[in-house]
Design goal:
By secondary structure, the chain is mainly beta. The protein contains 6 helices and 30 strands. The strands form 9 sheets. It has a 4-stranded antiparallel beta sheet with strand order 1-2-3-4. The protein has a 4-stranded antiparallel beta sheet with strand order 7-8-9-12, with no helix packed on it. A 4-stranded antiparallel beta sheet has the order 13-14-15-16, with no helix packed on it.
Length: 493
C-alpha cells in the first residue's frame, strides 16, 4: 500500500492504535561489563525493502543484519505481512556480517584529527545478489559492495606424494636407461612407445588433474570507491538518488553531487557560505533526495526552514523552487525561539508527497504542494518547555534527533530522552500518540529533565550559529565479539 492510498483509506476508517511488543535484541551485556566508547552506535539505517539493517558505531565499524523470517518461510514478504499469525510470531533479524569501514586519520595540512565514527549510512540499489551501501565519517565517504563468494579449495593433489622424490622427479630406477623410450621433448620413459596408446597416464599412474571444489560461501565486503577531500566541514548527510547513479553529501555550508563511479570529482550544487563568515546566520542541517524524482531534493537549515530545489533550473541551486517554514505567532517570540526551531532531520515519505521534519520540540509533516505551513504538528516532549533555560545552560537544547515515517505513511516516529521514542498517527483525525521505552521491558513513564553528558570538542562550524551539535536520543550499544555482535540499550540523558 503506498502513502496516498493509505492516507485515503485512513481518512475513511480511523485507525486504532497499534499494540507494541518487544521484538528482538541482539545479544546481551554481561553484568558489570563496561560500555566502551567505540562500541556506541552512531548511525542506523534500514534498506528500502526492510530486509536488511545496517548499523555504524564510533569505532568506524559497520554491522549488517538480515531479516530471516521471510527466507525460512519461503513466502513473499507481502504475503507474510497480510497473513494472520499468532502473536508469538514476529519479524526476526540475524547477524549477517561486519567490516571496518573507517580508520582514524590525521589531516596534516589543517592539523586536524579525523575520527573514525560513522556519521551516516545510506543503502544503494542492490544488483546481482550483492548489497551496496555508502558510509561516511566527518570527512570521507566510502562505497561498499557486500556479496557472497564461494570459497574454492583443491580437494586432491596433482601427484601422489608416495610416488615422487624430494625434488619432484619420478623414481623408476628399476628400468634401465637403455630400455627407455625418448620423446621429442627429451623426456624418456621405461616403456615402448606403442604402450602409450593404451596407458593414458604415460607411465605416471599417480598423475591426475586437480579437483577444485566450492564447499562453502563467505560474505566479503569490498570498498569500491572512496570520496574524499570535498568537504571543509563535518558531513551531516548523505542521500542516494533514485537514478541509481548519483548521490549527495552535505556539510554545514555546502551540498555536493557525486557520481557513484567517479570518486575524484564532485559538483557543488548548494553553497550558503557568505563572503564574510561574520555574516553567517544559518547552516545546513540535513539533506535528502526525493524518492522518485531524481531532479528534486530538499535540505533544512538551522533557522527552521526547508528548501525544495530542482536540479534542472541551474547548475548552482542558489534559489529554491519552494520554501517551507512556519510563521511565528505575534508576541510568541522568545530568546529560545530560533534555537528550538532548528531542524535536525528531514525525511521524505515513500511516495514523495510529504516531508517530515524534526526540530527540538516537535515533529512537523509538510505537504510539498502546500508551503503555507505544516499539515500536522506533533508535540514530542512539551513538558520540557518550562525548562528551556536549564536545557540551554547544560547545552541539551542543541541536541539533535532523527525522525522516520512508516512505509504506508500512516505513522511517524522520533526519539526523545531517557531511552524513549514516540509514535504518532498522522492521518486526519487521528489522536494516536504512543510513548515507548526502547528496552526489553517497554513501559510508559514520566520523563525527567535531561542532564548533559560531557561533550567532546569538534570542528563543526555549527557552533558559530549554535552552541552544540551532538546527536542524542535513542542510543544503543554495539559490541563486537568473536561470536558476533551484541546489541543492548542504555539510557541517554
Amino acid at each position: 500500500m503506498d502513502g496516498v492510498s493509505g492516507m485515503a483509506l485512513a481518512a475513511a476508517e480511523p485507525l486504532s492504535p497499534l499494540e507494541w511488543k518487544f521484538s528482538q535484541v541482539f545479544g546481551e551485556r554481561t553484568a558489570g561489563e563496561e560500555v566502551q566508547e567505540v562500541d556506541i552506535i552512531s548511525a542506523i539505517e534500514f534498506d528500502k525493502c526492510g530486509d536488511h539493517l545496517a548499523t555504524g558505531d564510533r569505532g568506524g565499524r559497520v554491522v549488517l543484519f538480515e531479516r530471516t523470517d521471510v527466507k525460512e518461510s519461503g513466502r513473499s514478504r507481502r504475503d507474510l505481512e497480510q497473513a494472520d499469525y499468532p502473536l508469538s510470531r514476529h519479524l526476526e533479524f540475524h547477524y549477517k556480517t561486519e567490516f571496518q569501514s573507517h580508520e582514524p586519520e590525521f589531516d596534516y595540512l589543517k592539523s586536524l584529527e579525523i575520527e573514525e565514527k560513522i556519521n551516516k549510512i545510506q543503502w544503494c540499489q542492490a544488483a546481482n545478489g550483492a548489497l551496496f551501501l555508502l558510509s561516511t565519517n566527518d570527512k570521507t565517504i566510502k562505497y561498499w559492495k557486500v556479496q557472497e563468494k564461494k570459497v574454492k579449495k583443491i580437494s586432491e593433489l596433482n601427484v601422489d606424494p608416495t610416488k615422487i622424490a624430494g625434488n619432484g622427479s619420478i623414481t623408476n630406477s628399476s628400468v634401465p636407461f637403455s630400455s627407455r623410450v625418448g620423446l621429442s621433448n627429451g623426456i624418456c620413459y621405461g616403456q615402448s612407445y606403442n604402450s602409450f596408446s593404451s596407458d593414458l597416464s604415460w607411465g605416471i599412474p599417480s598423475l591426475r588433474l586437480p579437483v577444485i571444489t566450492s564447499s562453502e560461501t563467505n560474505l566479503v565486503a569490498r570498498c569500491r570507491r572512496v570520496y574524499s577531500h570535498a568537504h571543509d566541514y563535518h558531513i551531516n548527510s548523505i542521500s542516494s538518488n533514485s537514478d541509481g547513479e548519483t548521490f549527495i553529501s552535505a556539510d554545514d555550508l555546502r551540498i555536493n553531487l557525486w557520481n557513484l563511479e567517479i570518486s575524484n570529482q564532485s559538483f557543488n550544487i548548494v553553497d550558503v557560505k557568505p563572503a564574510n563568515m561574520e555574516d553567517l546566520t544559518e547552516v545546513i542541517t540535513s539533506a535528502e533526495f526525493h524518492p522518485t524524482q531524481c531532479n528534486t531534493l530538499a535540505y533544512s537549515s538551522s533557522k527552521g526552514s526547508i528548501r525544495l530545489i530542482d536540479l534542472r533550473q541551474s547548475a548552482l541551486c542558489d534559489s529554491h523552487s519552494k520554501l517551507f517554514e512556519e510563521h511565528e505567532a505575534p508576541g510568541s517570540r522568545s530568546f529560545f525561539t530560533e534555537i528550538i526551531a532548528s531542524v535536525s532531520d528531514i525525511k521524505f515519505s515513500k511516495d514523495g508527497r510529504h516531508i517530515l521534519s524534526r526540530d527540538y520540540m516537535t515533529l512537523k509533516l509538510w505537504d510539498i504542494n502546500m508551503d503555507a505551513g505544516p499539515v500536522a504538528t506533533f508535540q514530542v516532549h512539551e513538558y520540557l518547555r518550562p525548562k528551556l533555560c536549564d536545557l540551554y545552560e547544560n547545552d541539551s537544547i542543541f541536541d539533535k534527533f532523527e525522525c522516520c515515517l512508516s512505509g504506508d505513511g500512516l505513522r511517524v516516529a522520533t526519539g526523545s530522552y531517557s531511552n524513549v521514542f514516540r509514535v504518532f498517527g498522522c492521518t486526519p483525525g487521528s489522536s494516536e500518540a504512543t510513548t515507548l521505552e526502547a528496552s526489553k521491558n517497554p513501559q510508559r513513564r514520566q520523563m525527567q529533565t535531561p542532564s548533559r553528558p560531557s561533550r567532546s570538542l569538534g570542528s563543526s562550524i555549527t557552533r558559530v550559529v549554535r552552541r552544540g551539535t551532538e546527536t542524542s536520543g535513542l542510543v544503543h550499544v554495539l559490541r563486537i565479539k568473536c561470536s558476533g555482535p551484541v546489541l543492548s540499550n542504555i539510557d541517554t540523558p
